[in-house]
Amino acid sequence: MPERQVTEVDGRRLVLSHLDKVLWPATGWTKGEALYYYAQVAPVMLPHLRGRPAAFLRFPQGIGEEGFFAKNPPPGLPAWVRTVTAPSREGPKERVAVDDLATLMTVANGYALELHVPQWTADSGPDHHDRLVVDLDPGPGTDLTDCCRVALVIRELLAADGLTAHPKTSGAKGLHLYAALRPAPAREVGAYAKALAERLARELPGLVVARMAKALRRERVLVDWSQNATAKTTAAPYTLRATAVPGVSTPLSWAEVEGCESPEQLAFTPDRVLERVADRGDLLAGLLTDAGELPRG
């Protein structure tokens, strides 16, 4: 395959490079295969990215070599790529909004193998979040099956507050639960998530911890509420993950969560994810439509 390949995506001229370069040495998976995956999954992925200031985990030398987390727009970004303003410790900064296929292919071609986004959009603004996220991270001695047990409890607690929970794998070890919100003050969303985590830690002390301290996490699932902070980002739905074997942050049905008996049941390759999308569509589609009101008080 040529080292450089010129193509047109949605009327934009792109120069894709080093498509034969192996980025996942354990499987021989190449940059070209990663770009193909993103091109195919884009119709269901992009609605979960649009308008959100993205951050990227970039691996120019492939998985197993040192990668880096990048928030600033990469050098040489085409002028047509949309950027949005996000707060930072140094003041407002421009970030890439992955709004369309051409932008997605551009950042992936620049070795942005993972895409992460916050719980707010440029339209709602950083002070108002339109998603609640709960990150379930298994500590030593626990695994994804334990995360599923906790997720089922969280689903009921959110439902009691009028919110609909939507699950997806992290693509690594854990599970993410989302609930769509009518834009609510960031401070209130964070407080709600923290109170939810602390309640679970009180009611399920042998299974759940709400604090980051490593000494507390053995045999327990961390209910990480902190990703609701304005400055934090979470692995986007359908993003590839920098695991030894290519993983994907994969939307799930609740039946799959209920029936999970081993972590392997919910580990999906990119090819399998594309098959699922072809068969079942976007299992996170409800996250785009069923916004609830954040409980007050």
Condensed summary:
25% of the residues lie in helices and 26% in strands.
Set out the fold topology.
Elements: E1 4-9, E2 12-17, E3 22-24, E4 29-30, H1 31-45, E5 55-58, E6 68-70, E7 83-86, E8 93-96, H2 101-109, E9 112-117, E10 128-138, H3 144-160, E11 166-169, E12 175-185, H4 186-203, E13 208-209, E14 221-224, E15 234-235, E16 240-241, E17 247-248, H5 254-258, H6 270-280
Parallel strand pairs: 13-14
Antiparallel strand pairs: 1-2, 3-4, 5-6, 5-9, 7-8, 9-15, 10-12, 10-14, 11-12, 16-17
Strand order of the largest sheet: 11-12-10-14-13
Derived from helix and strand composition plus strand pairing, the structural class reads alpha+beta
The tally of beta strands, per DSSP, is 17
The proportion of residues forming helix, as a percent range, comes to: 25-40%
Which percent band covers the strand fraction? 25-35%
Order of helices and strands: EEEEHEEEEHEEHEEHEEEEEHH
Q: What count of helical segments does DSSP give?
A: 6
Radius of gyration: 19 Å
Shape: globular
Q: Overall mean pLDDT score? A: 94
CA-CA gap between termini: 60 Å
* Biggest beta-sheet profile: 5 strands, mixed
Low-confidence stretches: none
